[in-house]
Amino acid sequence: MDLELAPEHAGFRAAVREIAQSAVQPWAAEVDREHRFPHEAVQAATQSGLMGVLIPQEYGGAGLDALAFALCIEELATACASTAVIVDVHNSVGTEPILLFGDEQQKRTWLPRLATGELLGAFALSEPSSGSDAASLKTTARRDGGGYVLNGTKVFITNIGRAGLYVVFARSGSDERAAGISAFIIPAETRGVRAGQVFHKMGLHGSPTGELVLEDVRVPAANRLGAEGEGFTVAMRALDSGRIGISGQALGIARAAVEEVSAMMRERGHGQGDDFTLAEAAARLESARLLAYHAAWLCGRGKPFTREASMSKLHCTDTAMQIAIDALQIAGEDGAISGSSFERHVRDAKALQIYEGSNQVQRVVIARELLKAG
Ligand code: CAA
Asked: Of the listed 176, 215, 356, 369, which one is catalytic?
């Protein structure tokens, strides 16, 4: 078993680190303070080819694997957690459903435009009355001639208003649970599609999150992703690998907190109490990283990885939250002042325990996988 990164992964990580430090990190504090979209950072990511990390080269992407993707998101999140989640959602749940379930025509139509960043991707599953219980969603997709007409409201949509393409889940069949759900590719410019309320969040201020309103949205059957009734499987599979990206984001926030508090301790001196806290944080970070890399490794090799992705998401995000709080505690009053990176890490880390499946949902998934017959 080789726990060293292969030269191509190490080289890619070094390249993303350089971009993150030079073109992402300089904007992080301002983006947080002003609650504004990090367009300079996203542009830098776009120009560096980071919007098509998982997309095969034949469709204009980099054709890299899940481990490279996790490394990429960790590096971006170490610099700016908002930029990281924008790029993460685009590459994973905003793009992967097409990569995994799209037919050749859909791949040729959409993937090159997603790979270049011409279109930003987003994922619309949650609704006001269905978050964790995703199979109870109410948005309808009524058959109409050669296509569908969608009506409903989606909530907590990352990249809302900025996305050029939404992967939307709606009820097309009579089954009231998962089997009645289909997935659709919906360009943002489609008539009847609009951004609703944009939420004011405690953290990740640069990442727009809000409602997606669908009013009599006509979608051709050619935009249905996968078979009719297969939508829930599309969502669950996309979320499995999406959770590896969120693990990377958590590792990035945690690493930033550890690096920043270490620099502070070197500079101002430190006692044994703080040394112990730092040591525990570093050990927890390393264990979380191994879980994330393992889940990514399994995913990249086409092996089952649902359980490992949920374990990774649970552990990495809880670890990031704890490390962010511990780093702020060591930093003391300086860390608690608004605008300090320590308090930003605490605010940013919280969302990760909630989105792409709350950590309660991760426990449900892990227990189910463990208790499966056989
Ligand atoms: N991979 C592929 N298919 C899967 C799957 C997986 N991991 N898990 C389930 N399925 C499919 C199966 O085909 C299954 O059918 P079978 O019974 O024939 O196997 C079908 O889906 C139904 O599965 P379940 O019976 O397990 O469905 P459930 O209703 O019990 O699911 C749940 C429960 C796992 C908690 C699920 O509702 C869930 O994951 N909820 C969380 C949703 C979530 O993560 N939302 C985040 C939205 S994105 C976001 O956060 C914002 C953003 O933009 C980042």
From this structure: 356
Q: Which atom from ligand 1 is nearest to the alpha carbon of 246?
A: 54
Cβ–ligand 1 distance for 240 under 6 Å, the answer: yes
pTM: 0.97
Helices (H), the chain: 7-19, 25-34, 39-47, 66-79, 81-91, 96-101, 104-115, 231-268, 272-300, 306-331, 333-336, 341-352, 359-371
pLDDT per position as a tens digit, 300-351: 999 999 999 999 999 999 999 999 999 999 999 999 999 999 999 999 999 9
Q: Which superfamily does 232-373 belong to?
A: Butyryl-CoA Dehydrogenase, subunit A, domain 3 (1.20.140.10)
Active-site annotation holds for 267: no
Q: Give the fold, CATH level 3, of 121-229.
A: Butyryl-CoA Dehydrogenase, subunit A; domain 2 (2.40.110)
Which tens digits make up the pLDDT trace of 44-54?
A: 999 999 999 99
